[in-house]
Amino acid sequence: GDSVTQMEGPVTLSEEAFLTINCTYTATGYPSLFWYVQYPGEGLQLLLKATKADDKGSNKGFEATYRKETTSFHLEKGSVQVSDSAVYFCALYNGSGNTGKLIFGQGTTLQVKP
Amino acid sequence: AAGVIQSPRHLIKEKRETATLKCYPIPRHDTVYWYQQGPGQDPQFLISFYEKMQSDKGSIPDRFSAQQFSDYHSELNMSSLELGDSALYFCASSSGQGSSPLHFGNGTRLTVT
Known about the structure:
Chain A is mostly beta strands. The radius of gyration of chain A is 14 Å and the shape is globular. Chain B is mostly beta strands. In chain B, 0% of the residues lie in helices and 50% in strands. Chain B has no helices and 11 strands. In chain B, strands 2, 4, 5, 6, 9, 10 and 11 form a 7-stranded mixed β-sheet that branches. Chain B has a 4-stranded antiparallel β-sheet with strand order 1-3-8-7, with no helix packed on it. The termini of chain B are far apart. The model of chain B has no long low-confidence stretch (mean pLDDT 93).
């Protein structure tokens, strides 16, 4: 079945460092890909998305490019801030018509130190 | 902008009791999803509804049931609660299209003692 694999955390960085969180997926067909962020005690917030190959999603300085040839959707940010500390989930949505569901990776905890 | 509303935020129940979680989707969203997130785990899909009909089913125990009502709100009913049911339960809504992202509520934290 469809699945998402993320790099294990926690990832600990100093403020202003470059961030990469790797995400690869296995899916039939052409899924849509997403990154969600979860701050402590809160729900999941959509960070960015890409719906087809070579699409680049971006938001709040974060970027990810849908790479079909490598089945990857790595999350990057050029300069992280302490406020970026959270759990990041890569996810895919694969469905047709009105069926389908979001499948999550295991999450990667990011800790940014001042 | 209006978001997905879940109630209650916190719920404490004893083993073998029942619980009902409620979800109010974003206006004009016709699809509702339920997810369960254990401590330190990724969210696991339970069930979804489109236009008040069940559209997909995941790892939902037989002790749980859910439905979507005519006003599009949804309820997750959980019976014979077990300690292992303690988790964060999220509801999400979307406009029903695959590329339309899911918008999540803040969740209901269920603790079974």
